[in-house]
TrEMBL record:
Gene3D superfamilies: Phosphatidylinositol (PI) phosphodiesterase. It holds the Pfam family GDPD. InterPro entries: GP_PDE_dom, PLC-like_Pdiesterase_TIM-brl. The lineage of its organism: Bacteria, Bacillati, Actinomycetota, Actinomycetes, Micromonosporales. It comes from Actinoplanes sichuanensis. Coiled coil: none annotated. This is Glycerophosphodiester phosphodiesterase. Residues 2-238 form the GP-PDE domain. SUPFAM superfamilies: PLC-like phosphodiesterases.
Amino acid sequence: MPARVAHRGYSTVAPENTLPAFHAAVRAGATVVEFDVRATRDGVPVVIHDRTVNRTTNGRGRVWDLTYDEVAALDAGSWFGPGFTGLRVPSLAETLDLLAPEPVDLLVEIKPPATLDEVKSIVAQLAERDLLGRTVLQSFDADVVRKVRDVAPDARRGLLLFRFDAETVELARELGVAYCNPSVDDVLNGPETMAALAAAGIGVMPWTPNDIAQWRPLVDAGVAGLITDLVGELTGWAGA
Ligand code: G3P
Ligand code: CA
């Protein structure tokens, strides 16, 4: 069976990219936990998906315009439901401390813009906890993947794709990625995507198959992992 990748944690049962979502993912049988990293104005890596804090917190503004203290003071749970009031946007350090003792690998998406120093800081935090061997660092932005390659040549890397095209395999080779992760539609509607990446020895973990009917054709196509909001359901399905 492919890896069961919890997208932003088990993000249908707890607010995405929060410590309870990561706890829930582990409890629900995820083999990999995916989350998104950005840096605050003062250079602290925090775990949040959007460019702004507007959707998933009670604050306003772009993450890189706010200090860590300002981000850490926000409520990142109320938007999801009353039972989650008071949750915070976790720092990368808090997230890694939570997940390090757990039997899961990490899929760390670095959102652009990310400076070389920010990439160094992310890699250093993983290395400090001896997590690099359990981690794939990925980004939609080839320049960010290039920075990861330059900072940590031995780290496993992934290139996220909005659309597979004729240049993809060459770019993936240049970046030395272990994974190219296209959209689920690219894999299901374009058999050449899987064929070309498999021929290049590159693994594929499509995002974000949240329709259970998509899982069988993806497994049959040979994907290395399913990045889904429904990781508990995937665990049950995989065990059936
Ligand atoms: O890991 C793949 C997936 O997370 C990419 O999309 O927008 O959810 O970060 P997004
Ligand atoms: Ca992501």
